[in-house]
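Dear H.,

Thanks for agreeing to be a second pair of eyes. The structure we're designing against is below in token form, covering all 656 positions.
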């Protein structure tokens, strides 16, 4: 962006990075650093970083207009003056190269690149108090962080290893000795003849890092890592009230949370991290086909897939923030493996995937796993997972961060171009699909297989340029082959006949991410109703205000061909005009919705308007005024559609 940019370049940036646009015109219209700039600066620094453009207006959401700054140097000086004012902001992350004037549509705007703050720098906060002054970037908005989130950021900054702490009031009696014995046996097998193997138990546990000494106070005792690795679940919860590890085997390739095998701390086993690993790994690999291989006269019953699953499971456990409210969750389905751990990654996911960068949250746990042959060397675990999965010609792993703070990894056992997906798309779309170039076809296939596709996901599975991906996705939306939800970097695309499947839904447990675990010692079957009784089907969760007596069309592809032509003719006065009077648009909407229910995506297509803008400016106000009737009570219901409240004949909407 150091050279003049066209509007398309701005849209490309919006889908590539976090982007915040502020008009920044000031009272005199010559440009001014807006007060809310600092909230965006704090929020971006504390999450993924991004760009702030001063002199660009985003109105409505997702549509940008360059206003320009008459005096950009005045705004730049005000920025630098305040960056060094600790009463304004806690830390300056910017260099000269991060603040630069750029030209968009012939107007000068100020581009500010806010880098992601390191773990040691966070939280970046307004004023002198992080409590109340820390902001986080969520869904393209800046939101104040609650006190619990701020304390976690402060702990992450101070504690290089979260499991290093020597605990007070815990001792050998809190450990499960069967787990300790199993670990020692594994250690002796992996490191035959090691001098630690014959040490007395207390000394052995100290050598591996389960016990230790606080160098500041001189206190000796059980480390948090030792409690997690070898403790009993009910004792672990004395220190970590939200501790929960959960394995679920689900029978179908669906996001529904019905399981046929489950492992949680229910009193029948220790419930600690090491036993969870020992019990879950065989379950994950039970159905894998092992080719016949011989090495040094011995059959090798291991494959790259086994190795990838070991790494993924170990990574989930050693990177988890066990103080968080989200449980560790491992899911096995016929089509995929899913891994969730509480806490966001300590380094940017893109850097972690590249390898060579590591900032493990629980380094003592990592060491203890490595001593018995689990978990790779620092910074190489994720690249090995990606490499081994690619070696099977399967879809690239999907690594995401979600809220509440959690990290998710999906390992799908399907081809990048699975035949069943191609057949399904061909059957539904015919030549509209088969005639597409390779990358648009891949975008539709990804949406078919994964339930959604995004600009970021396509960057991971194609080599296409970011700008080309933006153009391509826009074209698929205009052609009615994809529907878009959201704006900017948060835009998700789906096929017209599918509902978007948010990645975190695949990993939710029955109680939900924020709920406390079952009481210690209580089997999950006794602590909760079966999922089938606990959750109503979607169609029962929100009933329509009234049963539509006419057809309901949510997507353009659902509208019969003959009706499409009729609707397009009625919509022409608005569709083909750049601007029309508000009453004409309202009359056209009423005419289109008479005798049928139309979703906002259908109306947006007919009127050639942005769906969100149409919803805010026309559909919502017309419902409030009694001109339109919604099909469902919740305005944002994804199945929402509208019909005209009047049943009488309407005049031609194009006439005054």
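And this is the sequence the design step returned. I haven't edited it by hand at all.
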């Amino acid at each position: 962006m150091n050279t003049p940019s066209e509007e398309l370049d701005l849209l490309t940036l919006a889908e590539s990075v976090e982007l915040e646009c502020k008009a920044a015109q000031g009272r005199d219209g010559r440009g001014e650093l807006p007060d809310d700039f600092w909230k965006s600066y704090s929020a971006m620094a504390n999450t993924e970083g991004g760009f702030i453009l001063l002199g660009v207006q985003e109105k409505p959401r997702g549509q940008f207009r360059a206003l320009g700054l008459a005096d950009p140097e005045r705004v730049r000086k005000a920025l630098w003056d305040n960056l060094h004012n600790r009463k304004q902001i806690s830390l300056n992350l910017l260099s000269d190269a991060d603040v630069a004037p750029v030209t968009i549509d012939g107007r000068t705007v100020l581009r500010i690149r806010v880098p992601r703050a390191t773990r040691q720098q966070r939280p970046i906060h307004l004023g002198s108090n992080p409590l109340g002054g820390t902001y986080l970037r969520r869904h393209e908005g800046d939101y104040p962080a609650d006190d619990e989130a701020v304390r976690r950021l402060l702990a992450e900054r101070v504690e290089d290893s979260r499991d290093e702490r020597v605990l007070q009031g815990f001792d050998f009696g809190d450990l499960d000795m069967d787990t300790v014995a199993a670990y020692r046996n594994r250690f002796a097998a992996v490191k035959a003849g090691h001098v630690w193997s014959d040490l007395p138990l207390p000394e052995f546990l100290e050598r591996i890092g389960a016990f230790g000494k606080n160098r500041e106070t001189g206190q000796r005792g059980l480390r948090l890592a030792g409690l997690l690795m070898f403790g009993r679940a009910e004792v672990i919860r004395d220190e970590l009230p939200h501790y929960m590890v959960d394995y679920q085997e689900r029978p179908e390739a669906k996001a529904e949370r019905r399981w046929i095998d489950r492992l949680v701390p229910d009193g029948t086993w220790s419930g600690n991290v090491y036993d969870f690993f020992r019990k879950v790994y065989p379950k994950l690999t039970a159905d894998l086909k092992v080719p016949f291989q011989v090495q040094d006269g011995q059959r090798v019953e291991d494959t790259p897939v086994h190795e990838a699953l070991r790494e993924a499971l170990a990574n989930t456990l050693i990177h988890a923030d066990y103080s968080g409210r989200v449980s560790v969750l491992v899911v096995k389905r016929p089509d995929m493996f899913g891994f969730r751990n509480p806490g966001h990654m300590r380094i940017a996911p893109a850097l972690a995937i590249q390898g060579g960068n590591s900032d493990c949250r629980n380094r003592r746990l990592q060491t203890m796993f490595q001593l018995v042959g689990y978990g790779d060397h620092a910074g190489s675990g994720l690249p090995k997972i990606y490499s081994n999965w690619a070696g099977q010609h399967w879809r690239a792993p999907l690594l995401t961060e979600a809220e509440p703070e959690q990290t998710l990894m999906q390992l799908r056992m399907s081809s990048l171009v699975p035949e069943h997906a191609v057949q399904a798309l061909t059957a539904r779309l015919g030549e509209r699909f088969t005639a597409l170039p390779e990358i648009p076809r891949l975008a539709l296939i990804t949406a078919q297989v994964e339930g959604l596709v995004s600009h970021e996901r396509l960057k991971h599975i194609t080599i296409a340029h970011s700008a080309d991906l933006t153009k391509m996705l826009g074209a698929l939306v205009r052609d009615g082959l994809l529907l878009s939800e959201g704006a900017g970097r948060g835009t998700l695309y789906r096929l017209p006949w599918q509902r978007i499947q948010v990645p975190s839904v695949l990993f939710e447990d029955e109680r939900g991410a924020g709920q406390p675990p079952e009481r210690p010692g209580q089997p999950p079957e006794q602590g909760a109703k079966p999922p089938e009784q606990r959750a109503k089907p979607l169609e029962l969760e929100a009933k329509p205000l009234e049963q539509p007596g006419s057809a309901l069309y949510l997507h353009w592809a659902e509208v019969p061909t003959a009706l499409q032509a009729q609707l397009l003719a009625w919509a022409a006065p608005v569709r083909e005009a750049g601007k029309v009077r508000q009453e004409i648009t309202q009359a056209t909407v009423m005419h289109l919705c008479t005798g049928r229910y139309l979703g906002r995506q259908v109306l947006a297509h007919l009127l050639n308007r942005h769906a969100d803008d149409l919803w805010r400016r026309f559909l919502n106000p017309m419902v409030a005024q009694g001109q339109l009737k919604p099909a469902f009570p919740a305005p944002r219901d994804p199945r929402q559609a509208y019909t005209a409240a009047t049943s009488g004949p309407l005049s031609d909407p194009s006439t005054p």
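Two observations from my side: The longest strand covers residues 107-114. The two ends are 46 Å apart (CA to CA).

Warmly,
E.
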